[in-house]
Amino acid sequence: MSGPDFRLRNIPLLSRVGADRADNLRTDIDAATAGWPDAQLLRVDGRNQVLISGGQVVLGPAAKVGDKPPDNAVFLGRLNDGRHVWAIRAALEGPDDPHTETEVLDLRRAGQIFDDVSAQLVATATALLNWHDNARFSPVDGSPTKPIKGGWSRVNPVNGHEEFPRIDPAVICLVHDGHDRAVLARQTVWPERLFSILAGFVEAGESFETCVVREIAEEIGLTVTDVRYLGSQPWPFPRSLMIGFHAVGDPEQEFSFNDGEIAEAAWFTRAEIREALATGDWSSDSPSRLLLPGSISIAREIIESWAALD
């Protein structure tokens, strides 16, 4: 049995590119800090929330916090007008114009309303700041570390050992029968009617494709074949990278929930999934028996792309 070789119809929301990451300035820190007086600053609070106005993240003048980047600042890149952008973990501050309407939002709840530049800046800042929050001591000898290279690494001043931002890769896969049915599942911690596709973290010494096969067997007991790559998306909650796939399973094979993470799973037709997509997402008050992830997740894009097939 072979499956349809479909592609994602759209770039996942958190994979959008809007600003120049200017990675060359991370090693030329003098050049990076030279732009500080005119730079913009993104504030991310302790709950990974930011201020948004009209779909754009609210940035303020960096110089307001000092004449040079504070130790906890991370360099995010350059805007289209050439100004540098940095981020810090700090309480949110409104724009200078008191008439500007703002909202306190985060990527998980409202990433779909962010413009491309805002989505990239907030995703990058969230991932980096989350890493710094948990990387203050060396894994080698426990010595305090300090940030360098514009916040893109930390160094142990005792032995010079350098650590880089940690990313936890996870696969996420739509299992289908090669025709018009796909598997959706509900985790034990999710409310009734909330379903999605299957995901799991990559283990040491494991390829993405091998992980797909193992995770699906562990979670719902199906043996899948024809594993094919679709796309990827950063998921900085706190520091994951989601790698999307689709694979073929046999509807005649019985489900078995082997690792205790899945409460229920079922095969749904393309028509049923299209109907569920039309009712909204997990935040909807629809009485539909099937509620699907919101548009911020690559899961939604994978499901929508499969459902759109003829």
TrEMBL record:
Statement: the UniProt record of this protein carries the keyword Iron-sulfur: no
PANTHER family given in the database record: NAD-CAPPED RNA HYDROLASE NUDT12, NUDIX HYDROLASE, NUDC SUBFAMILY
SUPFAM superfamilies assigned to the protein according to its UniProt record, in alphabetical order: Nudix
Gene (UniProt): nudC
Family according to the record: Belongs to the Nudix hydrolase family. NudC subfamily.
Annotated Nudix hydrolase domain residues: 165-290
Name under which the protein is recorded: NAD(+) diphosphatase
Required cofactor names: Mg(2+); Zn(2+)
Catalytic activity: a 5'-end NAD(+)-phospho-ribonucleoside in mRNA + H2O = a 5'-end phospho-adenosine-phospho-ribonucleoside in mRNA + beta-nicotinamide D-ribonucleotide + 2 H(+)
